[in-house]
Amino acid sequence: MDGTAERLDIHLSSTMSSIPSAVPLNDPVIVDESLKQRNRECATTVHWNVLEHCSGLLANLAAVTQGAFVFLRATIFSIFQPLLPGLAMLPEWSPLQKERFSKLLQRAAVQFDCSNIDHQTSLRALWKAAYPDRGLNGLVSDQWKDMGWQGRDPSTDFRGGGFISLENLLYFANEHPRQFRRIFNKETGKRADWEYPFAVAGLNVTFMLVELLGLRADSKVPTTRAAVHFTAYLEDEEEAFDELYCVAFQLLDSQWLEMGASYMEFNSVLRATRNQIEQALCVPKLPRIYDLMTILNLPQ
Question: One Pfam family from the UniProt entry (predicted)?
Answer without folding.
Answer: ELMO_CED12
